[in-house]
User: Fold this.
Amino acid sequence: MTMSTTQLHVDPSQLLPSVLTPPISKSDAQRALVLAHLTGAWPLPDLQNEPEEFLPADVHVLRRGIEALRLPPGPMRDVDCADGGAPFRILVTQSAVTPGAQVRLTGTPRLGERPHGPLFESLREALGPAGLLLTEGHPWPVELRAPLSTLEREPVFRVPGAQSSQYASSLLLGCAALFLRERRSWRVEIIGPLTSAGYLELTVSWLRRFGFTVHERDGHFEVADYRAPERPPAMPGDWSSLGYLLLIAWHTGGSVERADLASAHPDQALVRLVEQVGLRSQAGLGNTLRLTGEARGGLVASGTECPDLLPTLAALACVLPGPSTLHDVGILRLKESDRLEGIRTMVDAFGGKTALEGETLTLHPPASRPAHFAMDSRGDHRQAMVAATLSVLSGVPLTLTGPECVEKSFPGFWRQLERTGVRLT
Assistant:
C-alpha cells in the first residue's frame, strides 16, 4: 500500500455539543446489496438516495462488482476490490455461483496479503468438480470461471471458522444464490470454533429479512426456503462509526442519530461494554442516542465478540483512570493494517503503556497527558478515526498522517468532527 504524506492537524480546544450522524452500515449494506441483486430488489432505494458523504467506499466497491456480475455472460470482466476485504470475499463466492461468469479480481497489495485461502479451498472442494476454475496470482489477479450447473454436486460448503467469519458469510450468501437457482437447500458447515460469530449472525439476519428461511444447528447453516418480503428492508446506521461518534458526543454533551438498538451488528456491544466504566445510554426519538455519566476504572473486551471495536475502546481506555484489558487480540493483525500494533503505537504516542501476553493486551493510561501527539494511519480508516477520537476525548491536539483513508467506511467523518467545534487544518 502506498502511504500518504498528507497531514491533518486536529485541534479539540473549542468543543461544543452537537447532533452527529453516522454513515449507513457498510456491513449491513454489503449484505443487503447482494440479496437485492439475487432477489430482484435491485437497486436498493436507500442506497440510491443516500448522500455521498454517508456512502462508504467499500459499498461502492461491492456495488460495482455486482453490476459486473449482472451483465450477460461474456468475456472476462475486471473488478477492482481496492482495499475491501469483505467485498472481495463476497464477490469471490458470487462470481463462483453465477453460471458461466468469468471474473478477474484485483486489489491493493495489503488486501492481497490478507488470508483468503480457506474460502478458495472451500469453493474448489464444493464446485471444482462441477467445473469451477479459480486461479491465484502473486497475489493478483484472482481469476474465476464459474460452472454452468452445480446440480450434480452435494449442496454443502465446508470452511474453517478460526480466521474470519467473512468466509462463512460469503458462502452463506452463495447458498442463497444457489437455492434461488436450483430450488434445493444449500448449507455451510463450519469446522472448529468461529471467530467474530456476530457478523455471521448479521448475515443470517439479513437473509431472513429478505425472505429466506435459514436453519441453524451445531455450526451448520442451511438456506432452505424463500418467500419475497413486501418491501426491501431499510438501511441502519453503522455501529462501527457510531462507536467513535457516541464517545465524542459523550465528551461534548451531544448525541447521535441512526443508532438502532435493535440492530444485529456486533459493534453495538459498545453500549453494553461502556457500562463497565459508569457510562449509560439514553435513547431518544427517531433512533437518537446519547451516553451520560462519569468514567471510572478500566474496561474489559474481547476480539472474538467485536474485533473492529477494539481500537475504539483502546482510545477510551487512554482516558480512563484505571488499566483496561483486551482479550483475543491476535485477529487484529489481519485487518487493513496490523491494528494490534496500531493500538500499541497510539497508546505509546499518547504517553501510556501496553503489555502483551499471548492474546491479551493490557493498556495503562498515562499518568499525565501529553501536550500533543502524532499518529500515522498507515492507510487504515479505523486507525485514523480512533486517533481523532482520542484527541477529542483527551483535549490533546493531534497531527495525523494519512487522514483521507476514512473514505473506506465514513467519508463524512471529518465534517462530523467539525460540527463539534474541532478545528482541522
